[in-house]
Amino acid sequence: MSALLEVSGVSVSFDGFRAINNLSFNIGPAELRAVIGPNGAGKTTFMDIVTGKTRPDQGEVLWGEQSRSLLKMNEAQIARAGIGRKFQRPTVFEDQSVADNLIMALKANRNPFAVLGWRPSPVSAARMAELAAEVGLADHVARKAGELSHGQKQWLEIGMLLASAPRLLLVDEPAAGMTLAEREQTTAMLCRLAETRAVVVVEHDMDFVRRLNCKVTVLHQGSVLAEGSLDHVTRNPDVIEVYLGR
Ligand SMILES: Nc1ncnc2c1ncn2[C@@H]1O[C@H](COP(=O)(O)OP(=O)(O)OP(=O)(O)O)[C@@H](O)[C@H]1O
C-alpha cells in the first residue's frame, strides 16, 4: 500500500529549540491513526506542518499518488488538495441551524467567493442530509447549532469538513469535554470515516485511543518514539518512562 501522506526527515526549530526533530512517518489512504505523546512532543506542530501553517527547516512532506510536495503549497491549496483539520474547539455558526451550517460548508467548498446570494439546490439539500446522517445529526438538522451539546457541535464541525470531501482528516483531541456516550459515538464515527479516507487523531485520552483500535504513533521530542498497536507501544519501556509512567 503506497502512502497518502509521507513525512520524511522533517525538522523545525523555534528560536533554536527543535520542536520537530527528523520526523518521518507515513499515513495510508484509508487508515485510522492515533498520534499520542507527552505535552510538547510536537503533535500540534506536526499538524501545523502538514496543513501549511508552519514551514519546516528541513525534510519533505509528500502527498497523494503523484507525491506532490505540500511544502510548495499554501494553507488554502493544501485544504483544496484534500486535507481537512478539526481543531479542538468547535467553530460552528451558533445562530444558524445545523442544516445551514452544513449548507454553508458545501457552498464554501464550491466557490469561496460565492457566499452571498447563494440558494441551496435540491442536490445540495440532499448532500446536506447525507452529511448530517454521516455525523449522527440527521434528527437535528433544524436545530440551531448553539443548542447542540458540545459533542454534537464537534460532529457538526466534522460534517462541515466532510463537505469538502477530504482524503485526510486531522482531528485534534476529539474526546475532550465529551460525555461517555458521545465518546463512544465519536469513536464509531471516526472508525467509519477511516474506511474511505485517512483519519489522524491526536488524543491524550488513552481509553479513547484504545477504543479506536488502530495503529498508534508515539511522538517524543519531535520524533517517533514508538509505533504499532496500543498494546505494543504501551509495553515499550521508553514510552512508559516518558509518557505513561508519569
Ligand atoms: N510558535 C512557536 N514558538 C515557539 N515555540 C513553539 C511554537 N510552537 C510550538 N513550540 C514549542 O514546540 C514544542 C512542541 O509543541 P507542540 O505544541 O507541537 O506540542 P504538542 O505535542 O502538541 O503538546 P500538547 O500535548 O501540550 O498540545 C513545545 O515545546 C512548544 O513550546
Automatic annotation (TrEMBL):
InterPro entries: ABC_AA/LPS_Transport, ABC_transporter-like_ATP-bd, ABC_transptr_urea_ATP-bd_UrtD, BCA_ABC_TP_C, P-loop_NTPase. GO terms for cellular component: plasma membrane. This is Urea transport system ATP-binding protein. The keyword Nucleotide-binding applies. Transmembrane segments: none annotated. GO terms for molecular function: ATP binding; ATP hydrolysis activity. Pfam families: ABC_tran, BCA_ABC_TP_C. The keyword ATP-binding applies. Keywords: ATP-binding, Nucleotide-binding, Transport. Residues 5-246 form the ABC transporter domain. NCBIfam families: urea_trans_UrtD.
